[in-house]
Amino acid sequence: DTGVSQDPRHKITKRGQNVTFRCDPISEHNRLYWYRQTLGQGPEFLTYFQNEAQLEKSRLLSDRFSAERPKGSFSTLEIQRTEQGDSAMYLCASSALAGGVSRRSYNEQFFGPGTRLTVL
Amino acid sequence: DAKTTQPNSMESNEEEPVHLPCNHSTISGTDYIHWYRQLPSQGPEYVIHGLTSNVNNRMASLAIAEDRKSSTLILHRATLRDAAVYYCILVWGGGADGLTFGKGTHLIIQP
């Protein structure tokens, strides 16, 4: 399967601990996105990368959250000092940037299965 | 961001067509209409998108109103596997920024 993969699939942690999630996008995709989804709600955008550059961060991304994509391939999302409100599904997606002016090039986003975080 | 309005849930029978409505009265001229769906315990998956003209692909059809203030996703012959939450999303300029999901429509398929 050459889809988007995420690791781990489930994470249970205690309040105050740090957690890190990994996302491996589809290999030829240069855009990578992070979303968060709580029960009964649609996914909420957090941030995205084009290659290794982080181009946009949502206001939802507090100072405790940091994302990296050091070599423009896989990405990590770290949450420091977790709180119970951080419990959610964290979704990663990737897309390929078509030719032409980037903002006018639609590209389908391919989502991974998500990492479910439970903060006790 | 321009917003979309969808019914919370809809129910249909297996092997019958399903019409999922979406209202987007504040759509701008450069907003594309995208549909994604999310099967239980999975990440969302792209279904279809369009700008002004009706669109067809192997999964579904998208019918866009002439004034573009509403659209309808059509599943021609629903199967149990189509039971999912369907999201109607407006994307500026067809660009590749983060998607703004609403709550979507929970589609229930009865056997």
Salient structural properties:
heterodimer; A: 120 residues; mainly beta; four-stranded antiparallel sheet; 11 strands; 0% helix; B: 111 residues; five-stranded mixed sheet; 9 strands; 47% strand
Please characterize this protein's 3D structure.
- The complex is a heterodimer of chains A (120) and B (111).
- The termini of chain A are far apart.
- Chain A is an all-beta fold and 120 residues long.
- In chain A, 0% of the residues lie in helices and 47% in strands.
- In chain A, a hairpin with a 6-residue loop joins strand 4 (31-37) and strand 5 (44-50).
- In chain A, strands 2, 4, 5, 6, 9, 10 and 11 form a 7-stranded mixed β-sheet that branches. Chain A has a 4-stranded antiparallel β-sheet with strand order 1-3-8-7, with no helix packed on it.
- Chain A has strands at 5-7, 10-13, 19-24, 31-37, 44-50, 53-57, 65-68, 75-79, 88-95, 110-111, 115-119.
- Chain B is mainly beta and 111 residues long.
- Helices cover 0% and strands 47% of the residues of chain B.
- Chain B is built from no helices and 9 strands.
- In chain B, 35% of the residues are buried.
- The model of chain B has no long low-confidence stretch (mean pLDDT 93).
- At the A-B interface, strand 4, strand 5, strand 9 and strand 10 of A face strand 4 and strand 8 of B.
